[in-house]
């Protein structure tokens, strides 16, 4: 029997609850599919930071490297640990350390879920550059605490980085409806974003079968609201992709349905899978978090591991319960109720 070793990082708040839900479903899918998932849990979180002074130990990246995939619940507890500390102490080091340069977030309405828009025919795959750009962490502050204080944040775009995310996007578009939208702000950012546009046009020559459109970030934000059905694959920088995928989550019914994958496309290191939502301290431990985004992320993990049939069965189970109204209204169904419904549909 094929066995996959999975690193589980439940994290903070509702991350613990939804990770448990997703893990139950993934285990059930593995049993049906004739393979096994061997999970090891790591306590790395804001609570871990308060105990140790670090979000993960110094050898955390090397510890994770031996796993086939990483599954993360949610990280962050801003009342106790600044978000800049938790993000730069755990999530970003994993993404960068394992060259998970493609962040993939699917946006579509599940059956039975009512989004805020009239349109229900959209199916968008948003691909966000995940390791450089505006989240590179380059910069600093001088004259801190004085009237002359200066803060500099430098966005870094490399040709290699832009080329590889664009090629990844074009390959995804080629496998879907052959439409790709590249998002920049090149009218205002005349260096980095003009560079992005130029590289995109160069790469596009290798994909003559894919229709390419270029949008400014503000225009794309409007289009996702007004005409989401017109979009197929969107490729954007780290910051712009982060913003657009929250719009995508909103139009698909909320963050409770927003799944994601942090992919190392050449598989030289493990990829990481996580729901888009945060740790939601206000509802932590109440047992009412919607685990669908977490379970969907688990399905994306199974797909990446090569277990496509099991992934499809999980997605079918999710769609069957939402079609019956389970998990479609925030707070109506408890986490355990939704989880058990998915498990029943899976079996």
From TrEMBL:
Alphabetical list of Pfam families matching this protein: Iso_dh
Q: Name one GO molecular function term.
A: tartrate dehydrogenase activity
Q: List the EC numbers from the record.
A: 1.1.1.93
Q: Where is the Isopropylmalate dehydrogenase-like domain?
A: 5-342
Q: Which UniProt keywords apply?
A: Manganese, Metal-binding, NAD, Oxidoreductase
Q: Which cofactor does it need?
A: Mg(2+); Mn(2+)
Q: Which InterPro entries match?
A: ICDH/IPMDH (IPR050501), IsoPropMal-DH-like_dom (IPR024084), TTC_DH (IPR011829)
Q: Is Disulfide bond one of the keywords UniProt gives this record?
A: no
- NCBIfam families from the UniProt entry: TTC
State the family it belongs to. Belongs to the isocitrate and isopropylmalate dehydrogenases family.
Q: What is this protein called?
A: Tartrate dehydrogenase
Source organism per UniProt: Mesorhizobium onobrychidis
